[in-house]
Amino acid sequence: MLKKFLLPAFLLLHFSTQAQTDDRAAVIAVIQRMFDGMRASDSAAVRSVFDPSARLQTAFADREGKPTLATEEISGFVEAVGTPHEEIWDERIWGYDVRIDGLLATAWTEYTFFLGEKMSHCGVDAFQLFKGENGWKITQISDTRRRENCQTEPAADVPAIHRLMDAWHHAAAVADEDTFFGSMTPDGIYLGTDATERWLRDDMREWSKKYFDQETAWAFTAHDRQVYLSSDGQTAWFEELLDTWMGVCRGSGVLQKTSANGGWKIRHYDLAVTVPNEVINGFIELVKNAPEKKD
Fold first, then answer.
1. First to last CA, the chain
2. C-alpha to C-alpha distance for 100 and 149, rounded to whole angstroms
3. How buried is residue 122: exposed, middle or buried, by Cβ count under 10 Å (0-12/13-18/19+)?
4. How many angstroms separate the CA atoms of 144 and 92, rounded?
5. What DSSP letter does each residue of 47-106 carry, written as one string?
6. How far is CA 110 from CA 118, 237, 251, in A?
7. For domain 157-288, which architecture applies?
8. DSSP, res 4
9. What is the pLDDT of residues 14-67, one digit of tens each?
């Protein structure tokens, strides 16, 4: 008699996560195969990534400013790829935001299109893909196109984040209110060391005005910062140590990329006092005996 075994929940989660990771890699590989085919003028390679029902659409404003959605047949696009042309069609992708549910996937990619070495235009590609018997196939691509504010080089995200954070701390040290709060998203949150100190950006700006009216609001020097990036390159999180008037503190937080060319903003910051383990009991007693705050 065969016995039925139930897999532990953590194994089920592991398998599910691994499947998502494998599918994400497969989706990106299909998209990259299309762009590689474009660069090589290989119409057969490009045709192979599309489902027979696929279509292309472009959203733009016409010369009169009227919103327009143009549709193109895949056959015309494939034929154009294979037609001899002097310049290489080089569409460079700056990151992938892939979402998958079962047999359906979407991928949001910011791109810049080059004719040879000359930048032509940029925008966003929105892919839809279906997973059939032959794997993932593209069912639709919708894109936008513009010629302004186009990224031309890969963003050096980690150095940009270090520069942002260093400038943010410096702004507090020199009471530069505009830079300090301008470095945060409008819905950004700041957690201070006191349990009551949880502010939205603009609430903190109002609360801290008396400090920023001085020569220095507060002066923290950051070091030993570690930065981590999400797989789609749109979110980062970090941890850092800070030399402060309170001693060594720890800061941590979350940043969000707000534009393709590296426009990072702080969405969440948590400032915490560090207490050595050897004195934690005394610290607990000190907190217990602290006077209650009055409203």
1. 70
2. 30
3. buried
4. 15
5. HTTEEEEEEEEEEEE-TT--EEEEEEEHHHHHHHHHS--SS-EEEEEEEEEEEEETTEEE
6. 18, 21, 31
7. Roll (3.10)
8. P
9. 444 455 568 889 999 999 999 999 999 999 999 999 999 999 999 999 989 999
Topology agreement, domain 13-144 and domain 157-288:
yes
| pTM, entire model | 0.61
**Which amino acid is residue 77, in one-letter code?**
F
Three-class secondary structure assignment of 5-24? CCCCHHHHHHHHHHHHHHHH
| Domain layout of the chain by residue ranges | 13-144, 157-288
Euclidean distance between CA atoms 10 and 73, whole angstroms: 46
> Is 201 within 8 Å of 181 (Cβ atoms)?
yes
- Report how far residue 109's alpha carbon sits from residue 143's, in angstroms, rounded to the nearest whole number: 9
In this structure, which long-range contacts are made by residues 122-125, counting pairs with CB atoms below 8 Å and at least 24 apart in sequence? 122/146, 122/147, 122/149, 122/150, 122/151, 122/260, 125/93
Report which residue type is found at 107: A
Dist. CA 140–CA 37, nearest whole Å: 17
Lookup: tokens for 286:
């000190």
Q: What is the CATH number of domain 13-144?
A: 3.10.450.50
